[in-house]
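Hi R.,

As promised, here are both runs. First protein below:
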Amino acid sequence: MNKLVKEILFWGGALAIIFIFCKHKPFWISIIWILVWGVFVELVNRLVRSWNKGRKNSEKSTDPRFNTPQKALRVALNYQISNFLFAFNPFLLVQIILQIAGKFWERNFCRPVLQAEQYSQKTDYILPITSEWFVFNGGVTRETSHSWGIPTQRFAYDFVKFGKNGRTFESDGRKLKDYFCYDAPVLAPADGVVVKARDGIHDAPFVGTFWMDCFTRNIAGNSVLIKHADSEYCLLAHLKHGSVKVKVGETVKQGQEIGRCGHSGNSTEPHLHFQFQNGKSFYFSSGLPVKFSNFWRRESEQKNCIKQDYISKKTFVSAGE
């Protein structure tokens, strides 16, 4: 819906609540109902926008998950409603509040890195993957950033794998094993010490429907945080349930398998979320840009060996051979 329609709906409903439905009730009850109405209007607004976007995409998409208007609508509903339900999960609600607090903390008390070239990394890093993967999301500029407004995820990446069919999955994508990256090994990008390791969170249900796991206990799902140098940590997230192979305090070597790619936590489909940050906290640290060493990068049909460089979304990358 456009801005005018949204405002008319909100203010019309707010006036109706004040002068009709809650006319003889305490003022604070009216305020609560107005807040609820505002949330409802915003949800409808997002659904309409998602539906319009999905309908346009479905006209040119061959993805069987949303290649018709009906499927696109279903996907949009699943995604938006499940995100809305996050607010009713106390574990996730606390984490969302902490992320907001982290933004305030960084803005007022930190000096974050905002220009990649201004940061000098303290060690050499390799890609945490084997074979060729696609950088679905992430980069070192505001335009390519995974989530510029979230401090720890400013320079984060999402990796997926494509098959010969040009998709990230085979069949209809409704099973975890359909996804080419699922259960693929995830590696330590450099020597370091494990400071946090989480396992035991089940992979999200209803894979292929874009229904987010609103019952999960942690946004990052199963994850491993490794300290590589002073104020230089990496987080590898959304790992497969039961696949984490390291423990807190364990020393790991570059290239060592630390877990398997999964679909746990806040995940729309199986993928690897990977980020560097300057502290242990997922909420009160700032993201760091790093260059990776000795990897291959493929854009279009050209494949080049890269000695050291940043990576960015919409490119295929693979570990050095």
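And here is the second one, sequence first, then its structure tokens:
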Amino acid sequence: MVLLLLTVLILEVDFQTRADLRAAGNFRDDLRAFYLARSAVTAGQALLKDDLLHGASYDALDELWAYPFPEYPLGDGTLTAAITDESGKINLNLLVDPQNGKKVDARVEQLRRLFDLLQLDRKWVDPLVDWLDKDTDPLPFGAENETYQRLDPPYSSQDGPFDTLEELHMVKGITDEVYRKIAPYVTVYGGPNDKININTADTSVLQSLDEGIDETTARRIIENRPFGNENVATKFRNSVSEAIYNHMVDKDVRSIDWVGYQSKLFSITAEGKVNGIRKIIHAVVRRGNKMELLYFKVE
């Protein structure tokens, strides 16, 4: 009996020791993977800063930052990263005027066109506007504070700008499916002076700029890229029909004012791997003389 008890005790201690060692090893690898991913974010920031100092006067997809980092071995693991231009997307916070909190009709129509292109019901644009505007009157398909207070658990409408893109999940009608479809084309970062970079915008974003821009016209714009300071007006005007251009410069639309050729806002997706352990970091930065970190999430 004594021998049996000792054997059981030894086996239990051995099992517990091995489990503790595995847990310690996983924790160590998890931490290493995180720091590898964090290093990749820092490398991405350095690349963007170098492009600002020594790159062209425009930002486009033919520049070094736009290409994914190849998997790079470092220590016991590897790291990789990819940079995306947030300025090539539609800024949802500009659906309302930041000064008076009222909806901007031309911006709302742009988002409705994007929903049409993505084969989504355009009525779900209304709740997005209601989430942002400061009034308490819901749009025909919208929702104000009263709607959200009836939920379980209840919460309040923002009545102000989105802080993160994930906040879209809180808006009426924005299901996971809708979110997955629109997320690559929209952003919540930037201000009223930040423009949509025509050099990095996707075909769907280009088509959303005006009701007259079809897929053929959007592809013509892409073929004429990159646009720069010295030729953006001329090259863009030659890429679209006269009717489209005249509509974009109309005083009641002025969507031509949304178009630019430089970027300040970028998202960096970085990954670190050690012994099968993966850590992914999503970061959004504002590029300038000083790099500003706007968003940081670890998975």
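A quick note on the second one: The first strand starts at residue 72 and ends at 74. Let me know what you think.

Best,
J.
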